[in-house]
Amino acid sequence: MFAHAYDLIEATAVTRFKVGGSPDADYAAFIPVFLSLDKKAVGRENPILVAIVDARHTPPNALWRKRISDANKQLKSKATFIFVSESALARGAMRAISWMLAGQLSVRIVSTFRDAKRIAEQIRGRPLPSLDALLDEAERQLAESGTHHR
């Protein structure tokens, strides 16, 4: 399952991948959201996207890694992408994707949301309570979509 929340004023976003549903559908949904968020971030100072992936969520296969890499080549903003997962396998898959980007996107890879928030706040030089609210919103969307599928 996939959800996202965006704060236009802060130029911050949180995407959330959770176990359940189809990983292919999750990645297919992520790419247009990612590109849309990038368009909204163009010209903004230090936009930040935090992507949180459950440890048991299926990492993207080679085809999805290439599609995500190809989407990254279309990016126009100077965003920082902070990837969060407790899974070493997921972090490794993201590292492979980041190598294919060749500097097109600033990528940070961490194991906790707290680490992601700390990095984002260091980049911005101030607290970002909006990240907690965005995570709460994405979680709420996932909870609602889960109840619709039962």
Please provide a brief summary of the model.
With 150 residues, this protein is an alpha/beta fold. It has helices spanning 23-41, 62-72, 88-101, 113-124, 130-148; strands at 2-7, 12-17, 48-53, 80-84, 106-110.
What is the count of helical runs? 5
Level-1 CATH class name: Alpha Beta
Radius of gyration: 14 Å
Classify the oligomer. single chain
**How is the main sheet built?**
5 strands, mixed
How many independent structural domains? 1
Q: Give me the count of strands.
A: 5
Mean pLDDT: 88
Q: What order do the helices and strands follow?
A: EEHEHEHEHH
What gross morphology would you assign?
A: globular
Describe this structure in words.
- It contains 5 helices and 5 strands, in the order E-E-H-E-H-E-H-E-H-H.
- The chain is α/β, with parallel strands linked by helices and 150 residues long.
- The protein has one domain: Protein-Tyrosine Phosphatase, Chain A.
- Strands 1-2-3-4-5 form a 5-stranded mixed sheet, with helices on both faces.
- Strand 3, helix 2 and strand 4 form a beta-alpha-beta unit.
- The protein is globular, with a radius of gyration of 14 Å.
SSE layout and pairing:
Blueprint: E1 2-7, E2 12-17, H1 23-41, E3 48-53, H2 62-72, E4 80-84, H3 88-101, E5 106-110, H4 113-124, H5 130-148
Parallel strand pairs: 2-3, 3-4, 4-5
Antiparallel strand pairs: 1-2
What labels describe this entry?
single chain; 150 residues; alpha/beta; 19% strand; globular
